[in-house]
């Protein structure tokens, strides 16, 4: 053992290599955490976009349809009511049978009819009602293909698997190949997805109904939450006396900000629907529930915006003889407005993505019609995503992902607007 | 006039009376506005308020009571044999009449008495609408006229207007209190009704959860058991997994961004991480159910493990990802709040950066970090969509993350979505669970705030 006294520097030096190793290790851990976080973000986006981008296209099949006058308009009146009542489903089936005359068995025929969507007969009806002069002729009509065919064309079904393990059968593949050979199948932009309401058939389902519902719900939320939030913030920041009552209000607001959103749904169900008797599934009730949920966000942001206005502005206004109310509404509020709007937009983005409380108040119904007002039963985009995510059809997976992409696009746009607003109007005093 | 048109007319009338009031204020002083007590606009606001607000209040009250009164009148006129039905059956009849009125399909065949009642209902509705229109317009116009007559040179219009605005501000600020009150009362009332049928102790300490109640007396195998322990165990298991993911990643990335990262990296990585906070939970749920759960099941299968396709692990993992930005931004704030002098002091004594962080910064920031983690836990417990979509439905008392468990929020959703009758214990159980959820998250938040306040080091 070496008993000679050592210098502290020697001791330090001995440990130095180890300490530096520790330092590097710690640094690497931090970096790994960041990279993991970013990896999660990109995984999420890749998974959603990878699953969803193909939903913006839809397979269409061209049918040769003979518009038999005796079936559509036997009297020859060309009355649009008579024309609209004809059996177009039967005509579509006839045209499929004509195309594949060797299909005989009942079950085979039924499979054959399922090549095209249930919506094909409506398309045909619309065409004939619009062009009554074509009755009696043979037309070439593009109709949406069934979702299974769509999936097959998009390559989501493995043709090499044995038939029993496939959802789509050999004869269907053969028919589709015939369509392909005759150039009677093509992929088009999926307009239905953006213009239709919900449907049990994936190829006919769209997000427009849910988007309208979201729009109405958000309008109600905005109309209620913005004035109430700003008013509360103004009161607490500019007028409230320092007393117990004010403390109670502040504690309540902070607590509400942390209450799980589903509890607001319970409140909406018990108070708005069961006690007051408002209609279920209505955007009005949804908007009111979301208002209560987003109010804390808006209030907290608005108070921060009011706090950032320097006291000199207030003193100057009061000094030239403004009343306190005039000082607030004419001078402080306009200066705080950009911050308040930023907070409101972020609150609205939150409300747009929220679904749990809306499940409670019945906005989770299967609704085909596009809502036209705040009292119509409707659903919202996130709930539509939830509903589609539960559907077993493979085609709904890509539609769900596509709906998520649309929702995320809205959210990103809203947040970008908030950032822009802050950048443009933010003032350092 | 329809209600929308009526409100629209009211707004127009109020706007018009603003103009009238303003004009009148000029008239009383022959155009010398400086002689007035208040600015001319205030006389306008004053008139508009008197025109609009009483009328709007009457409209709101009317609409609130209209349905009840009309229903009552219709029921009184119903034939004797319908009126003598039990209240529940009578309710159904009333519902049918309402459906007839709005033109929906009704459950039973339409008999003439119902048809007559529906016509009566429509008739009463029309009368009510007409009466409302006349009344409200009369009130609006007379309010405006009264206000106009009150305008004098020395009339204190500004004070009157400001008083009303003040009342509005004060009323808005009480909404937070009413919301809390509403939440507490609504869940409490239904929960108390629930505890009348199911004792509190068997709810809090019961080990079995199967809320299926027999609809018919003689039905087999569905007695209903309301023990919340499995739900809480499931919730805690998933939240625990979530925190295992979120705390290390969130905390370390906050430390790295605050202490190591260059300005450019920070400016890039921080917003990118915060994207995670802005993604709706339903998207995480879909991600968990579609991508993560099958991945975990398959990789578990490769290792020879039997993984449920709704494993707690998948839900917890994705929930953890959701919470990362929450933990990291809260910790980022407290780490940045530690004064630079403490870093300089530590490094001046020869500590490496990581030693400074571990021995100086983290201890100083600990209360804030703990508070942030507690808030994150409360958020994980209350999170709904991820677990609804990715966790199981059957209550399983297990600590194995590879099995399916269910959570409090999942059960609330399954019990309340869809048709329901409001007096079955099954529905009421959801409110009891909601009450528990509310209380637990509230306590967590209070503790978090307390920790932050009490143990925060005060610098400067």
Overview of this structure, please?
The complex is a heterodimer of chains A (429) and B (460). Helix content of chain A is 66%, strand content 5%. With 429 residues, chain A is mainly α. Chain A folds into three domains: 8-53; 58-196, no CATH class; 208-425, MetI-like fold (Orthogonal Bundle). In chain A, helix 12 crosses helix 13 (283-307), helix 13 (283-307) packs across helix 15 and helix 14 (311-319) runs antiparallel to helix 15 (324-353). Chain A is extended, with a radius of gyration of 31 Å. The mean pLDDT of chain A is 88. Chain B has 460 residues and is mostly helical. Chain B has two domains: 3-165, no CATH class; 225-455, MetI-like fold (Orthogonal Bundle), CATH 1.10.3720. In chain B, 76% of the residues lie in helices and 1% in strands. Chain B has 17 helices and two strands. Chain B has helices at residues 3-28, 40-76, 80-83, 87-102, 112-150, 157-173, 175-197, 200-205, 229-260, 263-278, 281-302, 312-337, 340-348, 353-382, 385-390, 408-416, 425-455, and strands spanning 209-210, 225-226. A two-stranded antiparallel sheet of chain B has the order 1-2. In chain B, helix 11 (281-302) crosses helix 12. The chains are: A mainly alpha (429), B mainly alpha (460). The interface between A and B is large, with 88 and 90 residues.
